[in-house]
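Re: Re: ligand-bound prediction request (bumping)

Still looking for help on this. To restate: I need the protein modeled with iron/sulfur cluster bound, output as structure tokens. Inputs repeated here so nobody has to scroll up.
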Amino acid sequence: MKKVELLIPAGDFEKLRYAFAFGADAVYAGIPLFSLRTREIGFTPDNINEAIEYTHKLGKNIYLAMNIYAHNMKVKPFLNELEKVVKMKPDGIIMTDPGLINIALKKFPNLVIHLSTQANTTNWTSVKFWRDLGVKRIILTRELSLKEITEMHEQVPDIELEAFVHGSICIAYSGRCLISNYLNHRDANQGTCTNSCRWEYKLGYDKGSLLEVENQQKPYSVENYMPPPEGFYVKEQKRVNDKFPILENEFGTYLMNSKDLCSIELIPNLIKAGVISLKAEGRTKSVYYAAMVSRAYRKAIDDYYDNKKFDSENLRDLMALSSRTYTSGFYTRNPRQYGENFEDGYSTSATHKVVGIIRNFNSQNGFTEVEVKNRISVNDEVEIITPEEKKLIKVKEIINKKGVSVEAAHGGADNVFIPLETDPGEFAFLRSEIK
Ligand code: SF4
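Reply:
Sorry for the wait, this slipped through. Here it is.
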């Protein structure tokens, strides 16, 4: 039986290598200027070719994102770039703009186009429309239920469906949002979103009497939403002269800050619904994130096909990553208020932190070079995490670059050397518990 594809974000070459080493079947990367993560500068038109060759040598797939909604001035440069990208022979191109998709398919009839989630495909008639146009895969919008996906697959079985299982979510339908554009002149649909939905907003009122304002306010309830009472507004902390009328409840004013998606427990349901590719978000996240998300989902997918029951250790490994806390999304119900993090706007590490990336093991002296990410001290208990195993060790010694034995090393400092009993292999991390 062909397994569902595990598709992981690759913001640069290193993330790509780690994603594959830790179990990804495919990665996606962005073409600078035309992808929706222009902050992701890891790939250039020159080194993307190298990434494609590397991927194909492993027998895996790479898809390239060119998924902006283009304004007139970008049409020509987009098509010029597309011509170059097609020659590189990626396994698919992720696109959104209907006009550009139409032209691309006329110019390159065999081009494999994956319709970006940004196109917000929410029903089977749209799936059929894109299939008839020649699109090979639909990257489903995150706001669909399993029932809706099942129906799409039943109505249009001859098109691939890809679904997000992990990573950040927009508070709006992906990218159908002008908050960042409005506040910061950076357009989500041009790849420059500043995540303004997650900023901290402060509540204020502008009537002469607080009592008068409060008396207009009805008790808060999601089901029975009331418009903001006259007088209340929020201000973004750096835009003190702009006032946005709003309603606050007891949790505070992180009004639009979606939790991150984590649907690892729904893998069997998504496969049964007809999904053939499970995708994680996060091209701008770390190498460690790419590796650990690949690892957890790889194990969960393999367990499913081996008829093993869900191993909650995979979920714990995802919980240990930095996140805005998790929601399982819309697949089984509308998450409503449980989909939002009202407490803060940042990702935080819950239980563990990565302390280092293992670089080179010297089999002659038994020391491994470590790129330090967070403070590590002699006598710390740390876990070595490889694609295959986790092993707890005690740090017996730390030697700095000058060959001097030190008590501790700090994140961002020069690489250090620690002794290990065995070679952990080319791809391994050190992680420690947050106490
Ligand atoms: S501001 Fe928030 S909701 Fe809007 S596109 Fe950016 S991440 Fe999505």
